[in-house]
Amino acid sequence: MTVPTGGACGLAASRCPACGEVRYPAVLRCPSCSDGGPAPAPVPAVLAGPARVVAVTRVHSDARPPAPWALVLADTDEGVRLVGFASAELAPDALGTGDAVRIAGSENGVPVFAPLGAPPGGGAGCGPAPAGDAVTRPWTPGTARPQPATAPAAPNRAATP
Amino acid sequence: MTRPADRLVVAGVGVEPFVARSPDPAGTLGRRALRRALGDAGLELPDVGWWVFAARFEHPALGQRVLAPLGPSGATIVNTENACASASIGFALACAAVQAGFTDVAAVVGVERASALGATVPLPDWDRLGRAGVTHPARYALEAARYCAETGCPPEALAAVAVKNRRHAAANPVARFRAPVTLDDVVGSPPVADPLTRLQCCANADGAAAVIVTTAGRAAPGSEPVDVLAVATGSGVRSDRPPARPLTARLAAEAWERAGAGPGDVDVAEVYDAFTVLEVLATEDLGFTPPGTAAARIARGAFALGGDGLVTNPGGGLLGRGHPLGATGAAQLAEVVEQLRGRAGARQVPGARLGAVHTLGGNVRELEANAAAVVVLGR
Prior knowledge:
The complex is a heterodimer of chains A (161) and B (379).
Chain A: E1 12-15, E2 22-23, E3 43-46, E4 51-59, E5 69-76, E6 81-86, E7 100-107, E8 110-115
Parallel strand pairs in A: 6-8
Antiparallel strand pairs in A: 1-2, 1-3, 4-5, 4-7, 5-6, 7-8
Chain B: E1 8-19, H1 26-41, E2 50-54, H2 62-67, E3 76-80, H3 86-99, E4 105-113, H4 128-131, H5 136-151, H6 155-169, H7 183-188, E5 191-193, E6 196-197, E7 206-215, E8 226-234, H8 247-259, E9 268-270, H9 276-285, H10 294-299, E10 311-312, H11 317-321, H12 325-341, E11 354-361, E12 371-378
Parallel strand pairs in B: 2-3, 2-4, 9-10, 9-11
Antiparallel strand pairs in B: 1-7, 1-8, 4-7, 5-6, 8-12, 11-12
């Protein structure tokens, strides 16, 4: 098989038909069924979340201006541990350990998290990117990340459970 | 019980001092470290029948380039890359070559001019996270944040690792950083990725280090060989599900069993500390202290020179010595060898008889690490 490149929000996960284990990025062979001889090939799966934040760091690096920005470690309900970004309109300290989040979008395969229950628009979403959206608009590595045309909204702390 | 003459030993070590920026090319640095190590072993260039050269970013055919001006003997040259664990994996190859009978003397030479990289080590642009602007410190800061969230450890406890290692480096003539720092210095240094500040991230350096491996019977009269009691190497499993046991813990279990010793027997260890949090995690995974206790213990002064227990990173670690990526593993080995010989001067761990070296290398973000090694040495 080939590695699927689609998936919701660009997160092309896989699921093992034998044990049900979900992996992201997708695997060609289930690591958990590898001891028992031939195992069925994993099939493409949608990594849907929700997820629980394990840890957050504010990164003071211009690699993604404006600094600081948040890098988030989160475990999805499927048991997948993800490294991703906080949604662009959130303050870098808006998310914290234990917060429930959803996968609101993705950037080149890196998930973008928003608080679970945040109103639509709280993240990039998984459909076609709205014009000027900073999270899903393609950008060239090594260049400045595209910025929202309008000023970022105030951090949506109230939406954090 | 007499010990067999064909047991593996480190016969010689040599380190070309680690500096911010060397005017010399990689070949010169490598030859200087090699000359020191051969002199230390009492051996000559033609004695070496198998070469391993380790680097992360250096020129292809590094080994051939280092040896060409010396009139190489025609012996096998292997050039290896395994991220920051390049030289430690290279050491395993050298041990394997001697044990397999490919040669009776093998040499590992690690070389890197990391100053060419600038202030950071870039993640490759084929890496999903690297392409999106995620840096090494950011990724490890996330582990630091996770550790603090899970253990309740205050960020200052992580900073204490840098204070300890910089204090140790002050007594190490090959270290890039010879000035000690205070906890306030470390906590107050510019933030990199919370909770890691600049002084909690190792700095790139230029340098080289070499290790000569042979058998006890082949070691030169008058040299001071140190026994290789165990070498355990491996690579990481996928990181998209937290592994039941981290790579370092898996290798440590293997190494202690092979060495016939346990973590409680170790007097001195060089532990991979590219970032303060990595020393904390490794100290626990190696079994030196129970999970969740390393940072708090280091903050209270444990594992430091002058105490009465195990000393970690007496040579300053990567935080104090600087990090010429390909040379680091060989420098860690050299430090523990000198400690076990009682030749470490002002940073000597008194009476050290059993030592360990731990190196981790990673940049493939789908994996918990690219490679790691745990080596147990003794006399």
